[in-house]
């Protein structure tokens, strides 16, 4: 008898689609603006976490966002995490 295959925690295609949707919604085709970077960064990490959490997978998530000018000069980074305190420990 064949063993049942374990369900993947998530698919790369689903996660890529979520990231593209959130980034496009937060930044669109705007040029890099240092003063807007913190807001964009927050919108991206929080938006990705919300959509990942809504998938209802029993996973912990860490989202890191780096926003950088194509010239290599401007740079902004941020990280956000999600886990269930009751089930994942402290």
Automatic annotation (TrEMBL):
Gene Ontology molecular-function annotations: dynein intermediate chain binding
BP-aspect Gene Ontology terms: microtubule-based movement
UniProt-listed Gene3D superfamilies: Tctex-1
InterPro entries per the UniProt record, alphabetical: Tctex-1-like (IPR005334), Tctex-1-like_sf (IPR038586)
Signal peptide (residue range): none
Domain of life the protein comes from: Eukaryota
CC per GO annotation: cytoplasm; cytoplasmic dynein complex
Name of this protein: Uncharacterized protein
Natural source organism: Rhizopus delemar
